[in-house]
C-alpha cells in the first residue's frame, strides 16, 4: 500500500523531489519504492528523464483505478480515527476562480474558526475535474458542468448575473451601447477557456436572448487573469463582461459604469459536489453541514 501511494504521489507531482517534499521523505526512498513496485508488477510505470517524470500508458491506467481506491482507504482511516465530537483532517477542494473570489471568502473563515482541527487545501482551476483522480475530496462548479453521479449541494448565492461595464471616460469617448448588437462597434475585453474557446457574451431581456462574439484588443484565459480584463476596462480600454459580484465594488465606486444593465442575464449559483459512492470524510461532512446551515446568514437572498 505504501508503494502504491508513493507511485501516485510521484506521478501527480511530476517528479521524485517534488513528491518527496510533500511526503516528508527522501527522493531516493521514493525512487526505490517505485522501482520495487515496477519489479513486482513486471511493468514500467514511470518514464524518467533528467528533467521530468511522467506515467507510461500502463501507469496512467493504474492511476485511474488506484486514485479512487486510495481516497476511499484514506477516508475510512480518517473516519475511524477522528473524534466523534470534533471533526479533524485535511479538506481538499477544487474550485474555479469565481468561487475562490466570490464564495469562499465569506464561508471559509467562519468555518475554520468553528473547526480548528480541520485544514483546507485549495486548488483553483476552471476545467471540470474528476475530484478523486485529482486527489481532492470535493469541488465547486456550476450546474451545467456537474456529472450525473455526483452529490450536489447548493453553496453561495443562489442567483448570480453576468454584467457588462466600461469606464465613464470610455463611454464618453465611444458612446453608450443601447442594445447588445451595438457592442460590435466597441472594444471588448475578452476571455477564453483553457481549451482555447473564446467566451461568448450572452444578454437577455424577457424572451429575447442575444449572443455576441466580442472583438477587442485584449484576450486572456478566464480565471485569475480576469482581474487584468477588469483593470483594462477601468483604464478606459473598452467594455468588460464578468460576474456582477466581481465588478460590483468598481460599479459602486464609479470606476465603472453599467452597460446594458436591463440585458444582464441571470443564472443559478454554484454547487459543492462530491462522489456519492464513497465514505464522506469527517472534514467534508462538517463543511457540507456548515454550508447548508450558514447559507441564509451569509447570503440572505439564498432564503428565497
Written description of the protein model:
By secondary structure, the chain is α/β, with parallel strands linked by helices. The chain has 3 domains: 1-83, Orthogonal Bundle (Arc Repressor Mutant, subunit A), CATH 1.10.10; 86-158 and 269-304, 3-Layer(aba) Sandwich (D-Maltodextrin-Binding Protein, domain 2), CATH 3.40.190.10; 159-267, D-Maltodextrin-Binding Protein, domain 2. The chain is 39% helix and 24% strand. It has 10 helices and 15 strands. The protein has helices at residues 2-13, 16-23, 27-41, 57-81, 97-102, 104-114, 168-174, 226-234, 244-253, 282-298; strands spanning 46-48, 53-55, 89-95, 118-124, 138-141, 150-154, 159-166, 188-192, 201-205, 208-212, 218-221, 239-243, 257-259, 266-268, 271-275. The strands form 4 sheets. Strands 7, 8, 11, 12, 13 and 14 form a 6-stranded mixed sheet that branches. A 5-stranded mixed sheet has the order 4-3-5-15-6. Strand 1 (46-48) and strand 2 (53-55) form a beta hairpin. Helix 1 (2-13) packs across helix 2 and helix 1 (2-13) packs across helix 3 (27-41). The longest helix is centred in the first third of the chain and has 25 residues, at 57-81. It is globular, with a radius of gyration of 23 Å. It starts with a helix and ends in a 6-residue tail after the last helix. The model has no long low-confidence stretch (mean pLDDT 87).
Amino acid at each position: 500500500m505504501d508503494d502504491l501511494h508513493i507511485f501516485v504521489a510521484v506521478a501527480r507531482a511530476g517528479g521524485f523531489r517534488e513528491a518527496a517534499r510533500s511526503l516528508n521523505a527522501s527522493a531516493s526512498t521514493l525512487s526505490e519504492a517505485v522501482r520495487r513496485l515496477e519489479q513486482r508488477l513486471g511493468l514500467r510505470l514511470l518514464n524518467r528523464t533528467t528533467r521530468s517524470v511522467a506515467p507510461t500508458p500502463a501507469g496512467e491506467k493504474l492511476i485511474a483505478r488506484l486514485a479512487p481506491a486510495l481516497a476511499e482507504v484514506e477516508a475510512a482511516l480518517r473516519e475511524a480515527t477522528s473524534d466523534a465530537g470534533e471533526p479533524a483532517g485535511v479538506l481538499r477542494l477544487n474550485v474555479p476562480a469565481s468561487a475562490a473570489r466570490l464564495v469562499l471568502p465569506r464561508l471559509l473563515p467562519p468555518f475554520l474558526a468553528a473547526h480548528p482541527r480541520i485544514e483546507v487545501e485549495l486548488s483553483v482551476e476552471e476545467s471540470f475535474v474528476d475530484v478523486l483522480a485529482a486527489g481532492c475530496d470535493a469541488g465547486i462548479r456550476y450546474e451545467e458542468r456537474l456529472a450525473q453521479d455526483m452529490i450536489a449541494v447548493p453553496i453561495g448565492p443562489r442567483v448570480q448575473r453576468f454584467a457588462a461595464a466600461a469606464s465613464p471616460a470610455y463611454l464618453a469617448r465611444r458612446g453608450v451601447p443601447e442594445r447588445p448588437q451595438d457592442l460590435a462597434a466597441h472594444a471588448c475585453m475578452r476571455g477564453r477557456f483553457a481549451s482555447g474557446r473564446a467566451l461568448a457574451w450572452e444578454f437577455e431581456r424577457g424572451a429575447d436572448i442575444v449572443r455576441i462574439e466580442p472583438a477587442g484588443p485584449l484576450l486572456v484565459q478566464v480565471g485569475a487573469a480576469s482581474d487584468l480584463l477588469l483593470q483594462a476596462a477601468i483604464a478606459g480600454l473598452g467594455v468588460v463582461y464578468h460576474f456582477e459580484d466581481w465588478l460590483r465594488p468598481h460599479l459602486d465606486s464609479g470606476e465603472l459604469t453599467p452597460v446594458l444593465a436591463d440585458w444582464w442575464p441571470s443564472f443559478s449559483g454554484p454547487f459543492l459536489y462530491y462522489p456519492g459512492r464513497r465514505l464522506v470524510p469527517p472534514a467534508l461532512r462538517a463543511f457540507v453541514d456548515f454550508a447548508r446551515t450558514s447559507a441564509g446568514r451569509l447570503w440572505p437572498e439564498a432564503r428565497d
